[in-house]
Design a protein that fits this description.
The protein is mostly helical. It has one domain. It is 58% helix and 0% strand. It is globular and about 50 Å long.
């Protein structure tokens, strides 16, 4: 179940679309090797991927988003975060061979620092955004 730019929501920028594609590729790789799926993901992995997509789409940092492990705001529940961590730990090294461009972008994103949360909250409030940027969707 790979993601193409056509799968992205209209308000989503190229960086978040690439993050979604990376997550989909990692999930598919993990699911294929652990659950025996030939293409895409099993129902359990597809649900986790859907959860990850929803969280990514509502990330308070938007296109300035750091890698989730460097973020001050943890959007995932503890259980889902652990599941994704296991998948990424397995799929990450294998992505270099199967999806080298996505891997490179992901490695560069891991070096990105999170924007200051206080500044983000002030900016969103000044724009009259109904959420302060840290509540869960």
């Amino acid at each position: 179940m790979t993601t193409s730019p056509a799968d992205q929501t209209p308000a989503m920028g190229p960086r978040l679309a690439r993050e979604q594609a990376t997550m989909a590729a990692m999930m598919a790789l993990y699911c294929h090797d652990h659950h025996g799926t030939r293409r895409g993901c099993c129902d359990d992995c597809a649900q986790l991927l859907d959860y990850a997509r929803r969280r990514l789409a509502t990330c308070p940092f938007g296109e300035e988003k750091p890698a989730c492990n460097n973020c001050q705001v943890h959007c995932y529940s503890a259980i889902q975060r652990e599941r994704v961590r296991v998948i990424m730990r397995y799929a990450g090294p294998r992505m270099l061979f199967r999806h080298p461009i996505l891997s490179l972008h992901h490695l560069l994103a891991k070096r990105r620092e999170a924007p200051p949360l206080a500044a983000l909250k002030r900016e969103r409030q000044a724009l009259g955004h109904p959420r302060d940027g840290v509540t869960k969707p």
